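PROTOCOL LOG
Step 1. Enter all chains and additional molecules of the complex.
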Amino acid sequence: METRPYFLFGDIVATASAGALAGLAAVATTFEGSNMWIAMLIGMPVGMAVALPIAFGLGALFGAMEVMVPSMLGGMLSGMWIAMAEAMRGLSLAEAAGWGAAAGLLGLVTTSIANALLRSDAPGA
Amino acid sequence: MNTELAEITRRKWDKAAASFDLMAGYGPEKRWAPFKNEFFSRMGGGRILFLAVGTGLDIQFFPERRDIVGIDISPKMIEKARGRAGRYPGSLALRVCDVHALDYPDDHFDQIFTSCTFCSVPEPVRGLESLKRVLKPGGELHMFEHTGSRYFPFNMMMHLMTQLSKHVGPEMNRATVENVARAGFVVDSVHHVYLDVVKTIHAHAPIDPPA
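Step 2. Run joint prediction.
Step 3. Record the structure below.
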C-alpha cells in the first residue's frame, strides 16, 4: 500500500477522475430502456478508453503502472456499472460522474488489495 | 535483428527522446526511487554493462566509483544522457549500440543491469542471448522491468495498453521472466515491485554451458 501522501493523492485523483469521466462517457453512449447486458458490454471498453489518456497523463506526475492500472480498472468498472444503471433507470450527469468516481476509487482499492497479496507472495517480500 | 527492424526501433526511440523525460522523468522515477536505490546497490566492482541507458535517468541511482558502459540504440537518447553521465562520480562510458548486435568479446562483463528495457527490445530472447554471450560464466544479470501479468483483469489491460503503447514506445505484456530462462540464464529470484507487472529479476549466466 502506497503511504507517501503525494502519491496517495495522485492515485485518488487519477482513479476518481478516470471513473467520473468514464461514467459520463457511459451515459453518453447508452440510453434508458436499452438491454442492460449490451449496455454493460459497451460501457466496459468505453470506460477503459476514456481512462487511458488520464492514466498516461497523470502517470507522468504520479507514477507509471501504479496510476495506469487502477485508473483503467476504475474506468472499466465505472463504464460497466454506469452503463447498466443508465439502461435500467436513467441517470443524471451528476449521478453518472459521482457514481463513476466511486467506481474509480473501487478500482484503486481493488488493485491495492491485489498488490498487497501479490507482493507478499513474492519471494523476498 | 535485421537492419530494417533495428532502424525502425532506432527511429521510434529517437522520436521519443524529446519527450521522454517529461513522461518518465518525474512521477515514475520518484515513485520507484526506493526500489531503484536498492536495485542498483547490487552494482559491484567489476566491469558492468547497463543496457538501454536512455536519457540517463537511472544514473542518479548508480553507486559511486563503478566501471560502467551504458548503451542505447538511439543516438538522440545517448545525446541527452551525456550531461547526467558527465556528472557521475566514476567511470561511465556511453555508446550507441544495438543489443542484438553487441560488438563486445565473449565473457566480457561481470554484471549486466537493465531498467525498463526488455519491454522494448524487438526480439527479447535473442537480445537476452546476446547478453549471455558477453556476460562471464556465473556473471549476474539484474533487471528492473515491467511485464505482462498472469492475472485477470490485469493481463487483459496490459494487452490492450500494448496495442497503443507499442507504436510510440514499450510493450506492456512481455513475458520477461520466461524469456530470461528461455535465453539460457539461471533465474535466481523475482521480486514484485507493483502487482506482478513491475518486478526485479535476478539471474546469472550458467557456469557450465549445456552440452
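Step 4. Note key features.
The first helix of chain B runs from residue 3 to 24.
The first strand of chain B starts at residue 47 and ends at 51.
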